[in-house]
Write a structure and sequence with these properties.
Helix 6 runs parallel beside helix 10 (about 430-470). The chain is of the alpha/beta class. It contains 14 helices and 15 strands. Helices cover about 60% and strands about 15% of the residues. The strands form four sheets. A five-stranded antiparallel beta sheet has the order 2-1-4-5-6, with helices on one face.
Length: about 650
């Protein structure tokens, strides 16, 4: 790999600087207040971080990072809320790197441990839990639809034996009707043979009989159609009664109620947007002030001396060893203790947490009102659908009754025609012809009945085939429902599993880092998942929290558990660093981010710093670490030194 190049203008305490960073370890060696942190910020900015401050007397700054034969240039401009950025950056989303790869003193992960905060939000931040919940809701809807489908298939299975029984009954009726028709036709053949010699005399009679047969056949068809239309009309009228009862049961949703809900939802959204803006502004202010405090302690804050309580500027060693540090407030210009500013900053952090709680309450209330709105809209849609179906049913009833009227008129006409033809036939028939007429009438009726039965049998066969085809899908639907149930179980426990796996990985890697540091009085640092009761809107719910535990050993070798609150300041800083380094390993950031940035290692002695650098040097392409001169000299691993970090 080729060396990376860095060009800096007006970043932190640096007015202008250029440097070359070869692969491996680069050490920024020198005393405090020598722009080492500013240099590290510049590297972070080139990679994509927005945790950057401008030089106190500059309105704009710029960083160019040459990496892997590409150049990433970013510009920074001072605004009322902080600093805005533009340009190309190496990382599309620098959030994880800011948490676990860019380990300055102001690093959020390190500070969270030092403050004893719940670590769950930091550890679970990379996990999109909302997407998991959306998938659960989608699968629940699909499962509900499959349950309805299985219920319908069960109804079809119960209906199938009845259809098959009706089909067999119709087959039996067809067989009986065919036998009766064959008997009548045989009798007709016998009668026709006996009166063959009178065939010519009966031609007119046969013509009348044929015409009568056709008219009777049409009359039967019309009667059948009338009966079918009546059944259809009765069914439609029953459906209309049911729909009207359902329409009466459905409560109409007033338009004003929906409008009020929408106005309330819009108001809640505006409140949430306002809270988001306040939270963002508070976060920017917190980060800006944290950086200013760090710069003030290093002496890089523009035109602001760092002094002990005596007001005299002293050596860096004096500042670290004794007295309260003072600086000039960058808002009002008065001299104040940095600790007082830290207290104010903690109040801002507390205010931000309150705003986040308020935001959670608003989101819960917003979800409740959205659900009410969806329910009202469903009620309205159901009412409209029922009204439309009633209108369609009434139209179908009118059409059916109109057709019924026409069929009734046609039936009356055909009955009159049958009476006329029967009268004419009676005038022509003799005793023999009367017998023939009866046989023809009987044969016509049997043929008509046979046709109806065969048609009914065919319809039943088609319906049975359709039902059997639907029933064959039962195993497929059941299999899909079981698969969805398994998916739901998996998803509902997925977040818990993710939390458990993440905590387990953090614990393993914190043990790994502690092994490197080899502290005699710190046996173990580990995270425990505990359930806590929190308020969510108007109700209290159980939520998981991640508690950090420290197992220490006494001088006598007895191990006991302690909390972060009981640790000294330097021990809290070491614990925060251990947590952040573990996060780097948990998320395999060396595969995504070519640089690892480490600062503020003063609480760790030279030998342990050397062990850490040697260990992490094997993971990352470029490891840039800021050290005091004596710590840099203790490094045994090959490294490049940058002693001039800009002016």
């Amino acid at each position: 790999m080729k060396p990376a190049t860095l060009s800096v203008e007006n970043i932190g305490g640096i007015e202008s600087a250029e440097a070359e960073l070869p692969p491996g370890v680069t050490v920024l060696a020198g005393p405090n207040a020598s722009n080492k942190t500013s240099f590290l910020q510049a590297v972070m900015a080139g990679l994509g971080s927005d945790q950057v401050s401008l030089k106190g007397d500059a309105e704009e700054g710029r960083v160019e990072l040459g990496l892997h034969e590409e150049t990433y240039g970013r510009s920074f401009t001072r605004t009322g809320a902080g600093v805005s950025s533009s340009g190309d950056r190496y990382l599309d989303d620098p959030e994880l790197a800011d948490l676990f790869a860019f380990l300055l003193k102001s690093n959020e992960a390190r500070r969270a441990v030092e403050a004893g905060a719940d670590l769950r939000e930091l550890i679970m931040r990379p996990v999109d839990t909302n997407a998991i919940q959306d998938e659960i809701e989608r699968l629940q809807e699909e499962k509900s639809g499959l349950n309805d489908e299985l219920s319908e298939l069960q109804s079809l299975k119960q209906r199938l034996p009845d259809l098959e029984g009706r089909q067999q009954s119709v087959e039996d009726d067809i067989e009986a009707t065919r036998e009766a028709l064959e008997t009548v036709e045989e009798e007709l053949d016998d009668v026709d043979a006996s009166v063959e010699d009178r065939r010519e005399d009966k031609n007119e009679l046969e013509e009348k009989l044929s015409e009568l047969s056709e008219v009777r056949s049409e009359l039967e068809d019309v009667r059948y159609d009338i009966e079918t239309k009546r059944e259809s009309r009765d069914s439609l009228q029953e459906e209309r009664r049911e729909l009207e009862e359902r329409e009466a049961e459905l409560e109409a949703v007033p338009e004003t109620e929906l409008e009020t809900l929408e106005e309330h939802i819009d108001d809640l959204r505006r409140q949430k947007q306002s809270l988001d803006a306040e939270i963002s502004e508070l976060q920017n202010t917190i980060r800006f002030n944290e950086k200013m405090i760090d710069d003030a302690r290093e002496g890089t804050h523009p035109a602001i001396p760092t002094a002990t309580d005596g007001g005299q500027s002293g050596a860096v060693t004096d500042q670290l060893l004794g007295g309260n540090q003072e600086t000039v407030c960058w808002t009002c210009g008065s001299e104040v203790d940095i600790d007082r500013i830290e207290d104010t900053l903690e109040n801002l952090r507390h205010l931000r947490r309150q705003k986040l709680d308020d935001k959670d309450d608003l989101e819960t209330e917003l979800d409740e009102y959205k659900e009410r709105k969806r329910e009202y809209e469903r009620q309205r849609t159901n009412a409209e659908q029922v009204t439309q179906r009633i209108a369609r049913t009434e139209t179908e009833i009118e059409t059916t009754e109109s057709a019924l009227g026409r069929l009734t008129d046609r039936r009356d006409e055909l009955m009159t025609e049958v009476e006329r033809l029967e009268a004419e036939v009676e005038e022509l028939e003799s005793e023999t012809y009367e017998e023939v007429l009866d046989l023809h009438r009987n044969a016509n009726e049997l043929e008509y009945e046979l046709g109806k039965l065969e048609s009914e049998r065919d319809d039943l066969g088609d319906e049975i085939e359709e039902v059997e085809a639907e029933i064959e899908r039962e195993d497929e639907v059941e299999s899909r429902r079981e698969a969805i149930q398994d998916e739901l179980v998996d998803l509902r426990t997925k977040i818990d599993r993710i939390e458990a796996d993440a905590v387990e990985e953090f614990n393993e890697h914190m043990d790994e880092v502690l092994t490197i540091l080899d502290y005699e009085n710190i046996e173990r640092i580990w995270i425990e998942i505990v359930e806590t009761e929190v308020r969510e809107g108007r109700r209290k719910v159980q939520r998981n929290a991640f508690e950090l535990h420290v197992v220490r050993s006494s001088d006598g070798g007895v191990a006991y558990e302690d909390t972060v609150d009981h640790l000294s300041e330097s021990e809290r800083e070491v614990t925060g660093l251990v947590f952040a380094l573990a996060g780097y390993l948990v998320h395999d950031l060396y595969e995504q981010v070519p640089f690892m940035i480490v600062d503020a290692l003063e609480p760790i002695d030279s030998d342990r710093i050397a062990a850490l650098v040697e260990y992490f040097e094997s993971y990352v392409d470029y490891l840039v670490v800021a050290l005091l001169q004596e710590d840099a000299e203790a490094l045994e691993v090959d490294h490049h030194t940058v002693s001039e970090t800009g002016a």
